[in-house]
Amino acid sequence: MTAQPLRAALLGFGTVGAAVARILVDRPDLADRVQLTHIFNRDVARKRSAWVPPSVTWTESVDDVFASKPDAVVEVIGGLEPAGTWVRRALTQGVAVVTANKMLLAAHAPELLHLAATKGTQLRFEAAVAGGVPLIHGVREGLAGDRLLRVAGILNGTSNYVLSRMAAGDEPMSAVLDDARRLGYAEADPSADIDGDDAGAKIVVLAGIAFRRHLRLADIPRQSIRSISAADFRYARQLGCTIRQIAMVGTSDGGFHAFVGPALVLRGSNFGLNMGANNVVTIAGHYGGENSFSGAGAGGPATAVAVVSDLLSLTQRTHERSEEWPAGTITPPPARPYYLRFVVRDRPGILASIAAALARQGINLDAVLQEPGYPKDALPFVITVEACQEAPLKTALHEIGRSDFNAEPPLALPMLLGD
Ligand SMILES: NC(=O)c1ccc[n+]([C@@H]2O[C@H](COP(=O)([O-])OP(=O)(O)OC[C@H]3O[C@@H](n4cnc5c(N)ncnc54)[C@H](OP(=O)(O)O)[C@@H]3O)[C@@H](O)[C@H]2O)c1
Asked: What kind of fold does domain 6-124 have according to CATH?
């Protein structure tokens, strides 16, 4: 441990930044390890808070922060710029960085980690994935002895809130999203959450931690949860399942398969039982089997715990060389069963024509489900198929989707029944 406390400056005094300062102020027992020296924010006068001690300098000049030669800066501004410029400036000066910024890491982690390594300093980012859940420390240190095979989880609280509410209440997505916005679980534009970019960025970071490889966010297949309807939950229930947004990455021959999107999971599984905005992540290892982490994936105080823990870990590891993440390659997913939902204008022969298109691709049907009571011009029914590769399934669905009996495009969801 260093004799002097780590002198840390906070860049950004918003939800997370204020909560970080609050912990450091509330916990005098940490004062001999971490000392908050500066709080930087634009228009900083608005932010001044009486509970922050006078020893802390409030500033709207980032130059003042760097001139003070801090040991670490905490970047909790968010976004690619100007946060990226300030993170690079810190690392270039040999100043350690703690950040919660998953988007910056997903885009630039290899460059930033390399910069940290060449400057003999550290880049830490426990808060960037699953908020307050100590997932990165757990994987990087607790599971370092295993050969990891797969990381899969519910990493986006907004999508999980929406889907778990739909599962419980038979409500349409639009009504649940309106409620989520009112309660502060969803932003005015929830696209990054429900279309998978947020969870995708977190999977990029987790792939780096678990496999020491950088995957490009643009290469990770992402499927929106927007197409999930109340009928899908009814059919999923008949199969003993529910639907969750799952983000996963696993090793495969020659690279990594990865996916973010809605999937069927067993109702009694870790994923199926995960409600509201909670996060849950399961890591599978060759030797140790499965380990799961769960907890608050967001929120100022929970996320701030992760940031402060990173600061404390810096006080113990000043001589550790920063890791690097060479590029990894995305490969197709392994064969798996799928749930296929069709909404059709009913007429004789539809099932036979769908079955024939699947058979032409060598795909075997498992079950056919059709609930009564739907209108004949928009009739939803479900076919589950045995484990198959994604490419022939896409070919079959493309062919089926061209038929004029479809009232909506066919929907395919992987069935992840082992989780
Ligand atoms: N909130 C969570 O639960 C959570 C969880 C995990 C990770 N994170 C990550 O933590 C980071 C911060 O999130 P947050 O929720 O704390 O955001 P936030 O509440 O919007 O706080 C950001 C702060 O940075 C300031 N800021 C923005 N641009 C600036 C600029 N150009 N110059 C100076 N100050 C600037 C903002 O000032 P203004 O007040 O003037 O806008 C605000 O005080 C993000 O990377 C986010 O993804 C957040």
From this structure: Rossmann fold (3.40.50)
